[in-house]
From TrEMBL:
Pfam families assigned: Amino_oxidase
Amine oxidase domain boundaries: 15-457
SUPFAM superfamilies: FAD/NAD(P)-binding domain
Residue ranges crossing the lipid bilayer per the database entry: none
GO molecular function, one term: oxidoreductase activity
Protein name: Hydroxysqualene dehydroxylase HpnE
Originating organism: Streptomyces chisholmiae
Keywords, comma-separated and alphabetical: Oxidoreductase
Its EC number(s): 1.17.8.1
Gene symbol of the encoding locus: hpnE
InterPro entries per the UniProt record, alphabetical: Amino_oxidase, FAD/NAD-bd_sf, SQase_HpnE, Zeta_carotene_desat/Oxidored
C-alpha cells in the first residue's frame, strides 16, 4: 500500500542528488528532492546569455567523461541522454606545442593493457626518447599501487613521479596534461592515492577506459531537462528554488527538514517536510551546517576539505579557426580548448553565421580566478593566435569569462582521511556528493557513485558510520 512506503528526502539536485532520488524511487520509496536553485544539475549546468551576437546557451564549464565512468554512463542511459554524449571510438587527444610548432597526439591501440599505449607514447613528440622510456616504467609502477592504501594519501604525486625518474618536462607535458584536467590540481598538490586512481582506472584498467565522452548538447539538456523528466517518470516530487534551512530528528523517529522558497520564485510559506530517511547531497560546507551534532566523528573535518576553482574563457570568432572538436596544449597558459559552436546555438544567430565558439577550460588556476576579464583577454587571445594561426585573421565577436570558485574539492595530500562515507551515526541520515569517500576525485563519476551508495545505504537502513566502499 502507498501509505506503507518509506518516505525519503534528498537535499540537493546535482548529479549526486538526482542519482540518489532515482535510485530510492526505484526501490519503491516515496521521494522528495529539494534544490535551492531554480534548476537541476549542480555545478554541471547551462544558462542563457545575451552576448554581442545574440542569445547563447552557455555551459558554465566544459565537462567530459571517460568510458571507464560506468556510473555516470549509467545515469545518462537512465535519463535517455547517452546518445547525446557519445564516447570516442578510440582515444585521440591532439596536443599542440606553440613554441616548437609541433602537433602530438595521446592515442591508444586495440592491444591489451599496457601495450595499448606503447605506440602512441613512442610517437609522442613532446618528450625525448629517454623520457618516454621512463614514462613507461613509471606507468607500470603506478599500476602496482593500491589507491585504497592510506599511506598513498599522505604523499604527493609529484614526489612519487620524481622518485620514478620523471623529468619536469615529462610531468608538465604528460602527467599534468591529464592530471590537471581530471584532478583540478598539479602533481605537487595532488594526493598520490587520487592520482593513482585516475591513471590506473583511466589508462591502465582496460584498453578503451580513457576514450573520451563529449556532450553534443548543452549540459542543461542532460542534467536539468532530461533529469527532471526522468524524476517525474519515477514519481519523485521535485521542489526547485527551495532552500533547506534546518534538519532535526523527529520525536518517535524520522526527520523534519525545514525549507523555504527563494525570493522571487513565487510565494510558498516556510514548512517542514517529514521523512524516514534523508540524503544530504550538498557541498561539504552545507552538509556541515545541516548535520546534527555528533552525526559524524570529528564533524568539523568537513570544513577542512578545501575547494579549488576552475576558470572558463569563452571566445567567439566570425569564422572557423579550429577544425577538430578539441585539443590540449603544452608550453602555453592555455590548457584545453573545445569547439562549442553547435551546442551553444551560435550557428542559428543571424549575426554569427559561419562563426565559431571556443571554450577554454582552465583548471588549477589559483589566483587567476580573481583576475578581471580584460586581463584574461590580453593573456589568452594572443595565445590562441599562437596555437591557431587562423585566429590572427579572424574577427573577434565576443569574449567573456565564467568562474566556478568552488568547482571541486582540492585533491591535496591528506584529503582522503577527511572525506566521510555515506553513513552517519544518526539513524536514517546519509551523505552524498563528489567530495565524499568514493575513492574518485571530484568528477561527475564520483558524484553519481556517491548517490548510488547513499541510496543503497538508505534503502538498507544502515545507521553506523562505516568506511566508504566504492560501488561495483
Amino acid at each position: 500500500m502507498t501509505g506503507d512506503r518509506r518516505r525519503a528526502l534528498v537535499v540537493g539536485g546535482g548529479l549526486a542528488g538526482t542519482t540518489a532520488a532515482l535510485a530510492l524511487a526505484a526501490r519503491g520509496q516515496r521521494v522528495t528532492l529539494v534544490e535551492t536553485r531554480p534548476r537541476l544539475g549542480g555545478l554541471a549546468f547551462s544558462f542563457r546569455r545575451e552576448s554581442a551576437v545574440g542569445e547563447l546557451t552557455v555551459d558554465n564549464g566544459q565537462h567530459v567523461y571517460l568510458r571507464c565512468c560506468t556510473a555516470y554512463r549509467g545515469l545518462l542511459e537512465r535519463i535517455g541522454g547517452d546518445r547525446l554524449a557519445p564516447v570516442q571510438r578510440r582515444l585521440d587527444v591532439p596536443v599542440l606545442d606553440p613554441e616548437r610548432r609541433r602537433l602530438g597526439r595521446i592515442t591508444r591501440s586495440a592491444l591489451p593493457v599496457p601495450f595499448h599505449l606503447a605506440g602512441g607514447l613512442a610517437r609522442y613528440p613532446h618528450l625525448g626518447l629517454a623520457e618516454r622510456a621512463l614514462v613507461s616504467r613509471a606507468a607500470l609502477a603506478l599500476r602496482r599501487l593500491d589507491p585504497a592504501d592510506p599511506a598513498l594519501d599522505d604523499r604527493s604525486f609529484a614526489d612519487w613521479l620524481r622518485a620514478h625518474g620523471q623529468s619536469p618536462r615529462a610531468i608538465d607535458a604528460l602527467w599534468d596534461l591529464v592530471g590537471v584536467a581530471t584532478l583540478n590540481a598539479r602533481a605537487e598538490d595532488v594526493s598520490l592515492a587520487l592520482a593513482a586512481k585516475v591513471f590506473r582506472t583511466g589508462l591502465l584498467s582496460a584498453a578503451g577506459a580513457a576514450d573520451i565522452g563529449l556532450p553534443r548538447v548543452p549540459l542543461g539538456t542532460l542534467h536539468d531537462e532530461l533529469a527532471r523528466a526522468a524524476l517525474d517518470r519515477a514519481g519523485v516530487r521535485v521542489l526547485l528554488a527551495t532552500r533547506a534551512r534546518s534538519l532535526r530528528a523527529a520525536p518517535g523517529g524520522g526527520w523534519r527538514l525545514g525549507v523555504s522558497s527563494r525570493p522571487g520564485q513565487g510565494h510558498r510559506p516556510d514548512q517542514e517536510l517529514a521523512a524516514d530517511a534523508v540524503v544530504l547531497a550538498v557541498p561539504q560546507q552545507a552538509a556541515h551546517r545541516l548535520l546534527p551534532a555528533g552525526a559524524l566523528p570529528d564533524q568539523d573535518r568537513l570544513l577542512a576539505i578545501e575547494n579549488a576553482p576552475i576558470l572558463n574563457v569563452h571566445v567567439i570568432y566570425d569564422r572557423p579557426v579550429l577544425h577538430r572538436p578539441f585539443f590540449a596544449a603544452v608550453n602555453s597558459p592555455v590548457q584545453w580548448v573545445f569547439d562549442r559552436t553547435a551546442p551553444s546555438g551560435l550557428a542559428a544567430l543571424p549575426g554569427a553565421r559561419g562563426g565559431q565558439y571556443l571554450a577554454l577550460s582552465q583548471s588549477a588556476v589559483g589566483e587567476e580566478i580573481q583576475q578581471p576579464a580584460e586581463v584574461l583577454r590580453k593573456r589568452y587571445l594572443p595565445e590562441l593566435v599562437r596555437l591557431l594561426p587562423r585566429a590572427a585573421e579572424a574577427r573577434l565577436l565576443d569574449f567573456f569569462v565564467t568562474r566556478e570558485r568552488t568547482a571541486t574539492f582540492a585533491p591535496s595530500p591528506g584529503v582522503g582521511r577527511l572525506r566521510p562515507g555515506p553513513v552517519t551515526g544518526a539513524p536514517g541520515l546519509y551523505l552524498a556528493g563528489a567530495w565524499t569517500a568514493t575513492g574518485w576525485p571530484a568528477t561527475m563519476e564520483s558524484a553519481v557513485r556517491s548517490g548510488l551508495t547513499a541510496a543503497r545505504a538508505a534503502a538498507q537502513g544502515a545507521s553506523t558510520p562505516q568506511p566508504a566502499k566504492e560501488p561495483v
